[in-house]
Design a protein that fits this description.
GO terms for molecular function: glucose-6-phosphate dehydrogenase activity; NADP binding. One of its GO terms (cellular component) is cytosol. Pathway: Carbohydrate degradation; pentose phosphate pathway; D-ribulose 5-phosphate from D-glucose 6-phosphate (oxidative stage): step 1/3. The strands form 2 sheets. The protein has a 9-stranded mixed beta sheet. It has a 6-stranded parallel beta sheet with strand order 3-2-1-4-5-6, sandwiched between helices. A hairpin with a 3-residue loop joins strand 12 and strand 13. It folds into 2 domains: 131 residues, Rossmann fold, CATH 3.40.50.720; 249 residues, Dihydrodipicolinate Reductase, domain 2. The protein has 15 helices and 15 strands. The longest helix is centred in the middle third of the chain and has 19 residues. By secondary structure, it is of the alpha/beta class. The N terminus is likely disordered.
Length: 470
């Protein structure tokens, strides 16, 4: 679960915003599950503005862990509760950090986890520095890391005025997902796949992140962001990097992140003329959404990689709300087999495909073709990671454990973040026209034009379908 050469683990975890939405849905559940697995070995200090006692917070935490569907064992939760202290206060008030310093005490190795709005990252880190709380500490921050390239650089400069880069952990929960991690092993430990994984075999790559729900209840959060900033600049470009990078030189986290940054540097900046933006009908009626909003709830784009392995292979990315299914996948479409005289109508056969489903029910499928009674038929060789490999840790379990133990491989580095913003910056500067689409459809019809001359968009290999759709 960790890589070699990491710094010493933390013995104190401070969670800023521990009564917030992320903690309610993810963090508390992950900490409880780490406790249940015997992997939580630190104090937990929760910090938030709510005026609660530690006993009040512990009772609230138990309810919130149970509300996620997690069965709560009394003995396990009792062990977890014994680790917890709660401090309430204003994160912009120096007095809070004086109390926090006294609570932590001298000589401890601390992980400060900022589950706060990005506008507070700088002020909190500066207050931590002024209070002498960063010398033997790491700081984890949740995405977004800026809203464009200029703001990402400004945020990095502000944080680096207090922290070294090796003290910063930028959290993108996609990097904690089992299939994203499994990609490294599938690609490089299996000669059967490694030999197909380049421009000689692959004709096109499709990366899809489809959600079958809208932004109900999140209008005020989502409207200033949109699909490009919300999931493409971070999640999908991290997946693209994992799909296309060269093998790391060693087991160190920096070797892995070097390879990801290297391939992102080779990605051409996106061309607005090769992108499609959409907004589902009814979006502007959502509470919190600005009247006449120009925010996209759907984005599709084409990217190119200027390196020897991937030149001339188009990468098509799409993400959207209120689409027909919930599914995130990577689909490598291989080049067609040559037409040979002894094969019946080989030009009618579908190209082979390698499909990695990231969510839900992670798995991998190899789509072949076989001869049916009258024509070619698809033949699918598929595996479910949970069924065949066992239940993996949840993403936030991995991320919290990695942050506490000093495993940086699950976190993005400054150069990777800035390269991702460089790639999408033209789409922010000169966005494509906003096109309407009906909820429950695959976005604007114009998205089909984006793949003209290449295999059409494929419906995702949905959980329970048993095979990728053609």
């Amino acid at each position: 679960m960790t890589r070699t050469g990491r710094p010493e683990g933390a013995d104190t975890l401070v969670v800023f915003g521990i009564t917030g939405d992320l903690a309610r849905k993810m963090t508390l559940r992950a900490l409880y599950r780490l406790e249940a697995r015997g992997l939580l070995d630190c104090r937990v200090i929760g910090v938030a503005a709510d005026d609660l006692t530690t006993a009040d917070f512990v009772a609230q935490a138990r309810e919130r862990v149970a509300a996620t569907g997690q069965r709560v064992d009394d003995d396990t939760f009792r062990r977890f509760a014994a680790r917890v202290t709660y401090l309430h206060g204003d994160v912009t008030d120096a007095a809070l950090y004086t109390r926090l310093s006294a609570e932590i005490g001298p000589g401890h190795r601390t992980l400060h986890y900022l589950e706060m709005p990005p506008r507070l990252f700088g002020p909190i880190v500066e207050r931590l520095g002024a209070a002498g709380l960063v010398e033997h500490a790491r700081v984890a921050v949740e995405k977004p890391f800026g809203k464009d390239l200029a703001s990402a650089r400004a945020l990095n400069a502000r944080l680096h005025a207090v922290l070294r880069e090796d003290q910063l952990l930028r959290v993108d929960h996609f990097l904690g997902k089992e299939p994203v991690i499994e990609l490294e092993y599938l690609r490089f430990a299996n000669r059967a796949l490694a030999g197909l994984w380049d421009r000689d075999s692959v004709s096109a790559v499709q990366i899809t992140m489809a959600e079958d729900f809208g932004i109900e209840g999140r209008g005020s959060f989502y409207d200033p962001v949109g699909a490009l900033r919300d999931v493409v600049q971070n999640h999908l470009l991290q997946v693209l990097a994992a799909v296309t990078m060269d093998p790391p030189a060693d087991a160190g986290a920096d070797s892995l992140r070097d390879r990801k940054a290297e391939v992102l540097k080779a990605v051409r900046a996106a061309d607005p003329r090769r992108s499609v933006r959409g907004q589902y009908t009814g979006y502007r009626d959502t509470p919190g959404v600005a009247a006449g909003s120009d925010t996209e709830t759907y984005i599709a784009l084409r990217l190119e990689i200027d390196n020897w392995k991937w030149i001339d292979v188009p990468f098509f990315l799409r993400a959207g709300k209120n689409l027909p299914v919930r599914d995130t996948e990577v689909r490598l479409i291989l080049r067609r087999a040559p037409r040979l005289a002894f094969l019946p109508t080989p030009h009618q056969a579908e190209p082979n495909q390698i499909v990695l489903r990231i969510d839900p029910d992670p798995g991998v499928c190899l789509q072949l073709v076989a001869q049916g009674e009258q024509t070619w038929r698809p033949l699918h060789l598929d595996a479910s990671f949970v069924r065949d490999l066992g239940e993996p840790p949840e993403p936030y379990e991995r991320l919290l454990h990695g942050a506490l133990t000093g495993d940086h491989s699950l976190f993005t580095r400054e150069d990777g973040v800035e390269e991702a913003w460089r790639i999408v910056q033209p789409l922010l500067d000169d966005p494509a026209p906003l096109l309407p689409y009906a909820p429950g459809t695959w976005g604007p019809a114009e998205a089909a034009d984006l793949v003209t001359g290449h295999p059409p968009w494929h419906d995702p290999w949905t959980a329970g379908s048993g095979a990728p759709a053609g």
